[in-house]
Write a structure and sequence with these properties.
Blueprint: E1 9-18, H1 25-33, E2 39-44, E3 47-56, H2 59-72, E4 78-82, E5 87-88, H3 90-97, H4 101-109, E6 131-132, H5 133-142, H6 148-172, H7 174-186
Antiparallel strand pairs: 1-3, 1-4, 2-3, 5-6
Length: about 190
Amino acid sequence: MKASDGTEREYDFALILSGVPELTTDVEDGLFKAGCDDATLSMQFGSLYMEFSRSAPSLKDAILSAIRDVRKAGVGADVWRVDSHDLVTPSEIARRIGRTRQLVHQYITGARGPGRFPAPDCNLTEGQPLWAWCAVGAWLSKNDMIRPETLRDAEIVAAINNALERSHQRQRDPALVDEISRAVAAT
C-alpha cells in the first residue's frame, strides 16, 4: 500500500534467486553495485537468498525494483520467487493474526466466526491441509480481522510470484504454456 502522503517507507521481504551456484565476492559485488546494497545475502539449500529492507512508496514498488536490480547485476542471477510463505497451516494463520490455533480451528470448522472459511488448497488427503494465504487473507479482511493493507500485500506478492512462475515456465517450454493458456481461456 502506498503511503498516503507520497513518502517512502521501509519494506522487508526476501527473494530466492536462481542461476547462482555459489555466493562469491564477484556475485556480492555485482549485486551491491546494481543497487542491492539494502539486502543481506546467504546461500540456503543451494539457492541464493536475499533479505531486503528497502525504502519505496509501496511494497509492490520495493519488490519490483529489487527484481530489476538483481537482473541488471549481470551475475547470472534471476529471481525465482518472493519468499512469502503463501501456503499456511492453521498454526501459521494463528501466528499471523495474533489469535490461538484453537480459535483458527473453530473458524475453519465453522464453530465460531461468520462461517464460510476458505477451503484448503492442498494436502487434503494427507491430513495436513494448507491454505493459500491470499484466500485466508480475503476472508479475514472481509470479516474485519486484518487490515486491508495486509490483504493487499498478500495479493501483490501472489501476483508477482505468479508472473515469475509463468515466466520460468515460458522459458522452459513456451509451446506448452501457450497451449495451456489457450485451453484455459477457452473454458
